[in-house]
Design goal:
Layout (H helix, E strand, L loop, with lengths): L7 H24 L6 H25 L6 H30 L2 H16 L5 H14 L2 H27 L9
C-alpha cells in the first residue's frame, strides 16, 4: 500500500497566505475608498485564482507530478475554507477592536444604492435599512465571508482541478 500525500499542509499554507493577502487587499481598498470599483474587485478574484493555481501546482509537484481531480477539489475547498475563516477572523477583529465604522460605511453604501433605485420609495428604503441593520454585523459578515470563500473555492477548484489533474497510471511498465 502506497503512502498518500495529504492536501492539508498545502491547503493550510495557501489558505493562510490567501487570508492575509485578502485581508490586506480589502484593507487597502477600504482605506482608499475603492471598495465599489469593479476593476479592483476583479483584481481580488485574480489574486484568489492565482493563489489556487500555486497551491495546486505545489501539491502536484510534491506528489510526483500527479493529482487526481478529487484531490484538487479537496485542496481547493479546504484552501477556500481556511482563507475565508482567516480573512473573516482578521476582518472581524479589525471591525471589533480597531475600526467599527466599517459597518456604517457598508450600510451607507446600501442606503445610497437603494435610494438611487426609482422603484424604491423613501419609506421602502427605511424599511430595508432597518432590516439590514439587524443582519449586517461583524459576526454575520464573518460567517458569510467564510461560506462565500468555501463556495467560491469549490467553484474555482472545479475548473482548476480539471485543468491541472494528472492521474497516476494504474500499471507502470
Amino acid at each position: 500500500m502506497e503512502d498518500k500525500l495529504s492536501v492539508k499542509p498545502v491547503a493550510i499554507k495557501y489558505g493562510l497566505i490567501l487570508a492575509v493577502a485578502s485581508f490586506a487587499y480589502s484593507f487597502v481598498l477600504n482605506v482608499t475608498n475603492k471598495t465599489d470599483d469593479q476593476l479592483f474587485a476583479t483584481i481580488n478574484y485574480l489574486i484568489f485564482i492565482l493563489v489556487f493555481v500555486f497551491a495546486f501546482r505545489e501539491f502536484r509537484t510534491s506528489n510526483e507530478g500527479f493529482m487526481k481531480y478529487s484531490e484538487g477539489l479537496k485542496l481547493g475547498t479546504l484552501t477556500g475554507l481556511i482563507a475565508g475563516f482567516g480573512s473573516g477572523l482578521l476582518t472581524y477583529l479589525y471591525m471589533i477592536f480597531i475600526d467599527d465604522s466599517v459597518i456604517q460605511v457598508i450600510l451607507n453604501a446600501l442606503r445610497d444604492q437603494y435610494a438611487r433605485n426609482p422603484q424604491f420609495t423613501e419609506e421602502m428604503v427605511e424599511q430595508v435599512m432597518a432590516m439590514m441593520t439587524k443582519f449586517i454585523t461583524p459576526l454575520t459578515l464573518f460567517i458569510a465571508g467564510t461560506l462565500g470563500n468555501v463556495f467560491f473555492g469549490f467553484l474555482i477548484s472545479l475548473i482548476i482541478a480539471a485543468i491541472m489533474k494528472k492521474e497516476k497510471p494504474e500499471y507502470e511498465v
